[in-house]
């Protein structure tokens, strides 16, 4: 009787996940050498995993020889996750109304450890915002949506989540963790957050929380615009619109 093949080791599993995780919006196509460099996995081992991933549809080889990209199997799994997000389903209609009423792009963001992830995006007719895509990850510390998500955490949790010195992305980015914590306290008091060119020069954003039946923040709803057209009056009307939409979604999630 032939011996049973041993189950894949945890090391192999970690390597497989590391290879898949190498791909991102900023790195949609990678070679075996690229992946080996990003993961510190030997190139020969990377090649073996790539063959399996291509066979199973998780990756595909592009028209450029030697370059690989995520395959339809990952697209299928990603859509299952997307469809199963209750908060996304509840938020879609209010986001549609908000985008139409204020002629602005509306985003829905959830937290995954120390990052935010766009899980829904609604654009008004005739507009297309290039800086955001569903599935894209954003920093928590320098975005309005991220500050909302951080505001659900204790000070201790925020300190353990973020480094003491935060990467500076623009001259307006808050880089001291203690200063950011004071900002989060203000967000908790006023119920909304803003990003004043902290992530990208020329771009401003405001966000509000969506709460679940336990009162925890399930997601952040945000909208943004060019700094030149994001004056106090425009910002105020967008915050008011966001708060109305987020309250509607929160009620659907069971928030009193």
From TrEMBL:
- InterPro entries registered for this protein in UniProt: GAF-like_dom_sf, HTH_MetabolicPath_Reg, Tscrpt_reg_IclR_C, Tscrpt_reg_IclR_N, WH-like_DNA-bd_sf, WH_DNA-bd_sf
Q: Which PROSITE patterns would you find in this protein's record? A: HTH_ICLR, ICLR_ED
- Span of domain IclR-ED: 73-255
Q: Which GO terms describe its biological process?
A: negative regulation of DNA-templated transcription
Q: Which UniProt keywords apply?
A: DNA-binding, Transcription, Transcription regulation
Q: Which Pfam families match?
A: HTH_IclR, IclR_C
| Protein known as | Transcriptional regulator, IclR family
Biological source species: Aminobacterium colombiense (strain DSM 12261 / ALA-1)
Lineage here is:
Bacteria, Thermotogati, Synergistota, Synergistia, Synergistales
């Amino acid at each position: 009787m032939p011996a049973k093949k041993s189950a894949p080791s945890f090391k192999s599993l970690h390597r497989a996940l590391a290879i898949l995780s190498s791909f991102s919006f900023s790195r949609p196509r990678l070679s075996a050498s690229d992946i080996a460099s990003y993961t510190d996995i030997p190139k020969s081992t990377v090649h073996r995993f790539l063959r399996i991933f291509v066979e199973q549809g998780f990756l595909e080889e592009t028209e450029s020889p030697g370059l690989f990209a995520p395959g339809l199997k990952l697209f299928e799994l990603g859509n299952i996750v997307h469809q199963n997000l209750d908060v996304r389903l509840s938020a879609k209609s209010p986001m549609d109304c908000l985008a139409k009423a204020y002629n602005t792009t509306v985003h829905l963001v959830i937290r995954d450890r120390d990052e935010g992830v766009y899980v829904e995006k609604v654009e008004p007719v005739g507009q297309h915002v290039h800086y955001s895509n569903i599935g894209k990850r954003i920093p928590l510390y320098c975005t309005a949506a991220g500050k909302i998500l951080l505001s659900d955490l204790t000070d201790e949790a925020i300190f353990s989540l973020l480094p003491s010195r935060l990467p500076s992305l623009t001259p307006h980015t808050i880089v001291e963790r203690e200063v950011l914590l004071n900002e989060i306290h203000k967000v908790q008091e006023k119920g909304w957050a803003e990003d004043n060119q902290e992530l990208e020069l020329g771009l401003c954003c405001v966000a509000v929380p969506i709460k679940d039946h336990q009162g925890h923040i399930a997601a952040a709803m945000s909208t943004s615009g060019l700094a030149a057209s994001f004056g106090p009056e425009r910002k105020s009307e967008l915050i008011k619109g966001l708060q109305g939409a987020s309250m509607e979604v929160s009620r659907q999630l069971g928030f009193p």
